[in-house]
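Long-time lurker, first post. I've been practising inverse folding by hand and with some scripts of my own, and I keep getting stuck on stretches where the structure tokens seem ambiguous. Below is the full token string for one chain I'm working on. Before anyone asks, I'm not after the true native sequence, just a reasonable design that respects the backbone. If someone could post their per-position residues I'd love to compare against what I wrote down in my notebook.
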């Protein structure tokens, strides 16, 4: 696939070596994210345990910190970035925040191409890290717009939607899957029955799915897909030409099939209505005493569905998912009753269902 890169093959290795060293030093300063048990007495009595890996504690505040670090190292080692590069990314927000963090670390200008509907909090964070935002009207427009900006600036389009599944070493090397299984070693059910993730690029599901197979674990991988996303119907049909309206849950779901989403690595898709995602986000926030983002709510709905099936089938085991980012990024939107009612409908019935499952 073509990419927009203007790095010189004869770029001084000293800058490249220094750039890689800065990213590696930043990684060395960062501790791994916590994996914590989620108290769910109604399921624990049946031998079913819940866990969340808290990715909100990364320096740039979300799961996408891992992806951004991998994408920068991949681009640097491929010779696509140099010391005059403008870094450009198509993103709904969190990846752009994390890439802006790493661009600032290397002293490179950064442009995020994103829908106008992206939360103001994410926009502010991108600008805090020195990035610039280029807005388009819909999620489907970000790809061509990002290529255009990269061409106009003589920069490099990072293209997370193509490179996410290959930029991370899925065999190990401290990736998220290896971290999960290492942290689970002393739990009651150390090998999870299910790992639940969302998909925006598909990079996280690809890394976990490959690692599980490589290590010969019995764990199954479930992708929780929000309403309006193309991934669930694509998983059913295999039709790569499919399109969909797009998701209203920021950070996951897409209007088109992305190259980094590898359907053969996913054992099961769970399609989640928006009102259920929001109700679960709020219920989980109340349980934890801290706000979580809407994609974490989507994951939580899928976890509950799987747990109910396991309980009804008399199965025991653990279910593990991700706390993707903090809910503080979504105060004017997903945590605002008026905004939710206007954009997604009434959530009270969904909330009541959620409380019945949790109790």
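-- Answer (accepted) --
I ran through it position by position. Result:
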């Amino acid at each position: 696939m073509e990419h927009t890169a203007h790095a010189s093959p004869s770029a001084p290795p000293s800058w490249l070596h220094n750039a890689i060293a800065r990213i590696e030093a930043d990684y060395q300063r960062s501790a791994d994210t916590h994996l914590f048990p989620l108290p769910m007495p109604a399921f624990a009595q049946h031998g079913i345990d819940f866990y969340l890996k808290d990715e909100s504690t990364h320096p740039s505040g979300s799961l996408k910190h891992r992806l951004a670090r991998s994408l920068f190292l991949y681009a640097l080692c491929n010779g696509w970035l140099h010391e005059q590069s403008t870094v450009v990314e198509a993103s709904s927000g969190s990846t752009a925040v994390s890439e802006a963090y790493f661009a600032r670390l290397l002293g490179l200008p950064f442009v995020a191409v994103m829908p106008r509907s992206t939360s103001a909090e994410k926009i502010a964070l991108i600008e805090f890290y020195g990035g610039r935002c280029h807005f388009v009207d819909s999620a489907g427009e970000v790809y061509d717009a990002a290529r255009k900006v990269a061409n106009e600036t003589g920069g490099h389009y990072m293209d997370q939607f193509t490179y996410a599944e290959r930029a991370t070493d899925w065999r190990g090397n401290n990736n998220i899957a290896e971290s999960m299984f290492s942290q689970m070693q002393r739990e009651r059910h150390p090998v999870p029955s299910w790992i639940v993730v969302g998909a925006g690029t598909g990079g996280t599901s690809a890394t976990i799915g490959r690692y599980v197979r490589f290590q010969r674990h019995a764990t199954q991988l479930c992708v929780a897909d929000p309403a309006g996303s193309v991934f669930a119907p694509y998983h059913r049909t295999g039709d790569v030409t499919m399109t969909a309206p797009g998701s209203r849950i920021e950070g996951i779901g897409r209007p088109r099939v992305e190259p980094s989403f590898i359907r053969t690595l996913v054992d099961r898709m769970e399609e989640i209505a928006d009102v259920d995602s929001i109700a679960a986000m709020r219920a989980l926030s109340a349980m934890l005493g801290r706000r979580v983002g809407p994609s974490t709510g989507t994951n939580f709905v899928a976890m509950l569905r799987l747990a109910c099936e396991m309980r009804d089938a008399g199965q025991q085991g653990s279910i593990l998912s991700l706390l993707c980012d903090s809910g503080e990024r979504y105060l004017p939107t997903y945590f605002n009753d008026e905004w939710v009612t206007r954009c997604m409908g009434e959530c009270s019935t969904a909330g009541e269902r959620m409380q019945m499952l949790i109790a």
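A couple of notes from the structure itself: The first helix runs from residue 13 to 29. The chain has two domains: 28-58+167-358, 63-164. Happy to go over any region you disagree with.
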